[in-house]
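Extended Data, record POTE1 protein
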Amino acid sequence: DLELHLQRCQQLSVTVLTDHQDLSNTELKTITNSTAPQQYRIRAKLRTYKPQKLHQSVKLHCSKCNSLQEVPDRDDFDFILHGSAGTAPNPEVHNTSWYESVTWTTQERKQREIAIHFVKHDEMLQHPEDTLIMIEGGTLKEIWKLTKRFKCVIPVRSTEDDLELLDLSAPFLLKGNVKYYGCKQCSTPKPMKNLSSIAAEQQPSWEPTEIAQVLGIELLQYVFIMKFTLVDETGSLNAYLFDD
């Protein structure tokens, strides 16, 4: 557990933080006065680390514009879904050559219309575990149930002549228990009909990278980032950990 390990590091008076056993120890002052890149072995105290809570270390990174952003929380997604549920599904865009649509009205006090569009392959519905579906008007709870049954789920809304993605503050795709996000700055969302090119493939894989590409989405990657402040008797050094 990294968090416990970091707490232990703070308690120890001296901690070896790198593993270049063939190198002699270098003072931090020497490192800060050197030009990068270099390889060093150091002995130092861990003064502080950020963020303090490990889950806050996970961010979303865009490799195109190099931006970092917080992972939206459950409430953000829920709010966007409630907003889109206020618009009834448009029957004019149901049951096309590449997907089959099913609609129903919920029995709750504030009734909602829900539409699910099952993407077909060779004009046939596939097994659920191989199928991508698009859903209009669903709640977060309903969408999570669908991700357990179907390969991929895309929340959408109707326009006059097609289906489109929701606000990119929401995940554009859910696969298993993973939510996939697109960069608002670098993406140019395209209508859902562009997915028909993947549906026409001999064996559609429905990989997130391929889906993102045909929908004009610059896919954000989950990254792990931390900042450590290291000290010895000669000075201090900020060290950054950044990884997928």
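Summary. The two ends are 18 Å apart (CA to CA).
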